[in-house]
Design goal:
Elements lengths: L14 H9 L9 E8 L2 E8 L2 H7 L4 E7 L8 H21 L8 E5 L10 H8 L4 H6 L11 E4 L4 H4 L3 H12 L3 E9 L9 E5 L18 H4 L3 E11 H17 L5 H8 L7 H12 L7 E2 L4 H20 L14
Parallel strand pairs: 4-5, 4-6, 6-8
Antiparallel strand pairs: 1-2, 2-3, 3-7, 7-8, 8-9
Helix pairs in contact: 3-12, 4-12, 9-10, 9-11
Amino acid sequence: MELDLQLYSVRTDLAVEAKEMAQGPLKTPIPGVNEEVEEADGIKVTRLGVANNAGSQAIGRAIGNYVTLEVPALRGGDTGLQQKVSVVFAREFEQFMNRIGINKNSSVLIVGLGNWNVTPDSLGPLVVENALITRQFYELVPDQVSPGYRNVSAIAPGVLGLTGIESSEVVQGIVDRTKPDVIIAIDALASRSLERINTTIQIADIGIHPGSGIGNKRRGLTKEILGVPCIAIGVPTVCYASTIVNNVLEMMKNHFGQMGDGKAHTKEIMGMLDDISEQERLQLVKEVLEPLGHDLIVTPKEIDEFIEEIANIVASGLNAALHDAVDPGNVGAYTH
């Protein structure tokens, strides 16, 4: 019997991680995948374009555009840095909308996906809570709306386990009635890297599938399903215990490789683990953990503080990107 190794692949929602896994340690270029990287003031911006089916199949991501902000120092709680990230996010998001043809007059529906009762899954509802909403003014007193504001509405539809209704079905009903020009869906993601948990923001124009990072196959929020362009914003807040164990084994391998005579020293300590691929090693870890019920979904103990901070960063950046009247240098003042 031949094992399907896809069952044991590292689960991640981040396009940059999918590309890294496809490239391997030699960082081999991938045809059909274009990458542009900028880094300044501790903020790394990666713009990734998947141009064709070959690139899509190579990294396991849909054809489209992906922008990732990585800020490892965000965990330090530096409010000045958080302000800078909001400004950079606002700039990148505005440029992203321009690239995919969303103009300044387009009406927007913000969808905060996730369960507000579960801290690492509450990103979407928290962003909605802090978003600058204006649709009611356009509906009731349109002549009194000041220049520089966009028609923005928002909803946190809850999760299937709470409502009995798929999020995409709730959103579909709202789209049919309110006719937004674009949907912005915000959700918590899963990562394969401990360093990227709560320090990374991804923007993508391919829509979103709730729960995909933790193995749930559900009806998504995409242009094909809803009939409206859908931009996804996500922050990784969890990873699998098996991924952590696998990462630790890889770090041990690299550490031992730097000691003594390198390869021989690593082989002596790691044994067969030094010879097998990352995917095979992950398969081994999962085979050990899953029967014991220990392949847990893990989040940092400081998640309460992290989730509030990253939600404020995303909401502040969105407010500045969507409304010209909001000063991107003072975005924090427009959340509540």
